[in-house]
Amino acid sequence: QNGMGVAAMVLGILSCALFCMYGVLSLVLGVLAIVFGIKGRKRADRGEATNHGQAQAGFIMGIIGTILGVAVIVLLAIGITAAINSEDDPDYYDGSLGAVATVQVG
Fold it and tell me: Smallest Cα–Cα separation from 3: which of 36, 32, 27?
């Protein structure tokens, strides 16, 4: 009877499972799971629905998915910043052009 609770649980599961996709998808799905979980719990508390447990599980998994998504985004930002500011740039060009002919004028 509680579509919000089912949606929260499905979105929470997806947010926990898809955190490896740069964290953005997990963050969005986690926030949606939290919102639907809160709405589903309120409906269950009012007696309009019977699946309070599903809504609670979706809410908790949404929080976990959101935390995972934020952690992945922060780690990616730190890694990219460290790579940009790295002093150990590989030198692919060693300055030699192979056989170079010199031309004398005059």
Answer: 36
